[in-house]
Specification:
heterodimer; A: mainly beta; four-stranded antiparallel beta sheet; 12 strands; B: 115 residues; mainly beta; 54% strand
């Protein structure tokens, strides 16, 4: 069975602080995909990143960066210099290769960024 | 480009009533799926389809039926609504080519309340 754990239920930071959202996963598959989605207060789900289990390179996109460590089964997400617009619920998800529809989601981390 | 369209946006049902949540995508994606989102539980997979005429159960299928007669449409049917089905429902689509998964593209959700 697959499992995704986001132990941080809610995080509050002040604007311009850096924040890291943790994601730990469990799977018996040898190949898999990991995803992060953002759900702003308006409710839609916005795709942020997909990472193949073969690729352990860290990725940076503007203020966002992701640290994938297969040895610890973690795929953490860091926002640098947070902004109020980053306030949202962030979901980490795990999916098998070859079956694009079947994602297992974590319970989400609510990030509140205040002035 | 409409993407994934869900209707209705909101619905209130009485216990025992039936209804169909509609989902349509215009991206020619072969994979489609339904998730429900409940507080503190993330998103859980209800049913999914890997192509027209093919459907399968996800993590929480009880009380729901699906069919996939066309590539574009993937309706979710509640045959006899129960209060436990009060939730926000998301439809999603994606494409896959061998082991390569695209991210899920989500609709904007349907908020269902069963009284």
């Amino acid at each position: 069975a697959q499992k995704v754990t986001q132990a941080q239920t809610e995080i509050s930071v002040v604007e311009k602080e850096d924040v890291t959202l943790d994601c730990v996963y469990e799977t018996r598959d040898t190949t898999y995909y990991l995803f992060w989605y953002k759900q702003p207060p308006s409710g839609e789900l916005v795709f942020l990143i997909r990472r193949n289990s073969f690729d352990e390179q860290n990725e940076i996109s503007g203020r966002y960066s992701w640290n994938f460590q297969k040895s610890t089964s973690s795929f953490n997400f860091t926002i640098t210099a947070s902004q109020v617009v980053d306030s949202a619920v962030y979901f980490c998800a795990l999916g098998p290769t070859g079956t694009a529809s079947k994602l297992t989601f974590g319970t989400g981390t609510r990030l509140q960024v205040t002035l | 480009n409409a993407g994934v369209t869900q209707t209705p946006k909101f619905q209130v049902l009485k216990t025992g009533q039936s209804m169909t949540l509609q989902c349509a995508q215009d991206m020619n994606h072969e994979y489609m799926s339904w998730y429900r989102q409940d507080p503190g539980m993330g998103l859980r997979l209800i049913h999914y389809s890997v192509g027209a005429g093919i459907t399968d159960q996800g993590e929480v299928p009880n009380g729901y039926n699906v069919s996939r007669s066309t590539t574009e449409d993937f309706p979710l049917r509640l045959l006899s609504a129960a209060p436990s089905q009060t939730s926000v429902y998301f439809c999603a689509s994606s494409w896959g080519q061998g082991a390569l998964n695209s991210p899920l593209h989500f609709g904007n959700g349907t908020r269902l309340t069963v009284t």
